[in-house]
Amino acid sequence: MHMEDATVGTVENVVEVVEHVAEVTEKIAAHMADQLPQDGSLREIAEKIEHVAEVVNNDAEKVEAVVEKIDTVSDEIDAAVEPVIDELEKQLDQTSTPDNGANTQD
After folding, report:
1. N or C: which end of the chain has fewer CB within 10 A?
2. What is the DSSP string of 17-78?
3. This prediction's pTM
């Protein structure tokens, strides 16, 4: 489970970085668009960048929600399965107990 936790943590970190970059890009593009002439092609490009950054940010938020849901469901599955595995291990230990040398030959 440790590798799974590390993977989820890595995905969460990547999503947070993508969100942050998208938010900053969106703000910068909006600011640049406001500073450029209304009918200029550079303003149009800045507005397109702003829109793309907004879409990326929204998608990153959706990915983050999915990752959180996966993490929650995974924890629930672990909690349900762990007692069963523990019981099976106990049963296995009981059936494979050594017979303390009762079958050894001299």
Report:
1. C
2. HHHHHHHHHHHHHHHHHHHS-TT-HHHHHHHHHHHHHHHHHHHHHHHHHHHHHHHHHHHHHH
3. 0.67
